[in-house]
Amino acid sequence: MTLTQAKGHFYKQYLKLFKAAGEWEFILVYPLVHLFSMGFLSAFVGGEDSARVALTYMFVGAFSWNFYVLAQKGITYGILHEIWSDSVKHLATAPAGIIDFIIGNGAYSLLSGLMAWLLMYLCAKIFFAFDIFAGGPVIVLGLIGLWLYGMAEGLIVNAIMLLKGPEYMSITWIITGIVMVTSAVYYPLSILPEPIRTAASILPTTHAIESIRQAILGGNPIAPGINAVVLGVAYLLVASFVFSKSLTRSKQNGTILRL
Amino acid sequence: MSIVQVLKLKKSFGDFKAVNEISFEVEKGEIFGVLGPNGAGKSTTLNMLATLIEPTGGTAIINGFDIKKDTKKVQEIIGLCTSSTKFFWDFNAIEILNYYAMLYDLDSGARKRRIASLIERFEITEFQNKKFAELSTGMKQKIALAKSLINKPKVWFLDEPTNGLDLEVSKTVRKVIRDTVKEENTTVLLTSHHLSEVEELSKRIALINKGELVVVGSIKQVKEGLNFFDTIHFTLAKQSDATQLEFIKKIDGFEYMRVDETRVLVRARSPQKLIGKLINGLENKNVKIYDLEIKRASLEDAFLKLIKGGSSSK
Ligand SMILES: Nc1ncnc2c1ncn2[C@@H]1O[C@H](COP(=O)(O)OP(=O)(O)O)[C@@H](O)[C@H]1O
Ligand SMILES: [Mg+2]
User: Fold this and answer.
1) Complex ipTM above 0.90?
2) What's the predicted TM-score (pTM) here?
3) pLDDT score at B311
């Protein structure tokens, strides 16, 4: 593992950003679509005060959601671009390891997530007088939790694609769908029925979003923030292991040749 | 010194044995040819040596490193290039080479130098800023070859590198292979079904068929091993002279003769030695001939014979 090798992965993603128009969808289009639809929705529901709280819930949800999706996408597209261009074998025979892959693509995940955040921050501020940074620097904990978990999920999707083929990319949408409902992205955890609430408690996203929300609403963001980071690290470690095993398996049974 | 030792290498896909316990050695600095019909297991062998897939059994030692245990060390000192190699279609040559140079841990100075030298060697300059998707097959293959040399590999695996290229580009590719071996002291393992290409580049070859190693050795040894020799051809001025040719069978090194009206074919272990006696004999017997020529047994013929043998033994 070296910095240059990690940089190689980042370099590829960075170039793709300026070459593949589709890249901007995730950074420009979806975040703003979320932001504006949530903004108008919360203006529509409730009176003045409760509308403000609803807006916070929905905006924290939209900000967090897009950050996590971009973290996940950075890792998944690290492989997917290669599969689409039929160049996986170059990657699979290069001496850059899995850690280089995670660091390089993870750095790009972070960059793209922050770019989306900047854009959303400006629009939320200008059009809805909402400041995501009102809670102070403590929201970094939640962001790290989202980032780590997003990368972990990306690695799991990669592991599946290495063994089953790129069609399985669509698994992503199933997982993100489940995560969206379960981790109480747009509403308080207490609204969820009991069994789902238990499932929610083991997802880093639940804690991360709760932490960012608490920071803005003046509650306690530290405890959920730390939970999010610790869980995020655990998920990432497990996912890295799974990804590495799946790469070995793919080289053993030859599926790597057919990607 | 053997830089590559292939030791009972084996690969199964499910129940199917694609490569079955093959062993051979490659000397440092040589261009070693791996030949065999389609589906013989050539690519599978190279892919295992290049760490793209894992062997089911056996292993190989490359420059002292075991492909199974020291995979990363092996990856650092090898390059793999196949035919119709693809890269990101929206990247240009410089970007492609830069990307891989980083994955091979070349620092920024080393990247610049290596890429500049490869671009010169492969004459990439004029299209270096064009998207990969917009390039001709020949240009694409030049980039593929350059990429596979980005880390100055000690062992260079080439899987049918001129497949699908026109004659001129193929010639350039062969020249670059020879030059690289000379300049960088690289060892090459080359598969090809252009047999003449292997004959031109390699001294030693391995023939594989249906996953089994048939024979390994110098091209001369392989031809002899397959009982395939150079032939002498000539035409008789008078067909009636055909009866006068029996003496040829008694000449040293004679293998086989066929007379087809006035056309005569003689197969011999060493026709260059036999031909003097043959001409003398014909003169003594007053047999007039014309169109005398020696046809060298091509590997192509040996190869076709092998495949025919292979399929008839089913
Ligand atoms: N990934 C794979 N899965 C299953 N069978 C394979 C795979 N790769 C190659 N094979 C089979 O292994 C045999 C050898 O293939 P290959 O090494 O590509 O032959 P060659 O390069 O000599 O033409 C073929 O019968 C091929 O169908
Ligand atoms: Mg092949």
Assistant:
1) yes
2) 0.88
3) 42
Q: Give one DSSP letter per residue of A94-130, joined into a string.
A: SS--HHHHHHHHHHHHHHHHHHHHHHHHHHHHHHH--
DSSP chain B: -EEEEEEEEEEEETTEEEEEEEEEEEETT-EEEEE-STTSSHHHHHHHHTTSS--SEEEEEETTEETTTSHHHHHHHEEEEETT----TTSBHHHHHHHHHHHTT--HHHHHHHHHHHHHHTT-GGGTTSBGGGS-HHHHHHHHHHHHTTT--SEEEEESTTTT--HHHHHHHHHHHHHHHHHH--EEEEE-S-HHHHHHH-SEEEEEETTEEEEEEEHHHHHHHTT---EEEEEESSGGGGGGGGGGGGSTTEEEEEEETTEEEEEES-HHHHHHHHHHHHHHTT--EEEEEEEPPPHHHHHHHHHHHHHHT-
pLDDT tens-digit series, residues B137-180:
999 999 999 999 999 999 999 999 999 899 898 999 999 999 99
* pLDDT digits 0-9 by tens, A55-98: 899 999 999 999 999 999 999 999 999 999 999 999 999 999 99
Residue position matching structure tokens 């955890």: A189
Q: Indicate if the alpha-carbon torsion angle B239, B241, B244, B249 is positive or negative.
A: negative
Name which of B87, B104, B107 is nearest A85 (Cβ-Cβ).
Answer: B87
Best residue among A163, A252, A257 to mutate for probing ligand 1, ranked by most atoms within 8 Å of CB: A257
Residue A225 Cα distances to A135, A144, A236, B35, angstroms: 13, 9, 16, 61
User: Which residues from A are below 8 Å from B89, CB to CB?
Assistant: 85
- Angle, helix A171-182 to helix A194-201, in steps of 10 degrees: 110
> Hey, what are A233's tokens?
């690290």
- How far apart, in whole angstroms, are the C-alpha atoms of residue A161 and residue A79? 9
- Cα–Cα distance, A179 to A199 (Å, whole number): 10
Q: B-chain residues within 8 Å CB-CB of A92?
A: 51-52
Interchain proximity B52–A9, CB inside 8 Å: no
For residue B218, which phi and psi values (nearest 5 degrees)?
Answer: -70, 160
pLDDT in tens, B11-30: 999 999 999 999 999 999 99
Sign of CA pseudo-dihedral A239, A241, A242, A243: positive
| Strand, helix or coil for residue A46 | coil
Summarised one tens digit per residue, pLDDT across range A185-243 is: 988 888 899 889 999 999 999 999 999 999 999 999 999 999 999 999 999 999 999 99
Pairing of strands B254-260, B289-295: unpaired
Which residues are CB-neighbours of A65 under 8 A, at least 6 positions away? A34, A180, A185
Of A7, A19, A256, the CB nearest to B52: A256
Residue positions counted in chain A: 259
DSSP, res A45 = S
Q: Note the pLDDT of residue B308.
A: 66
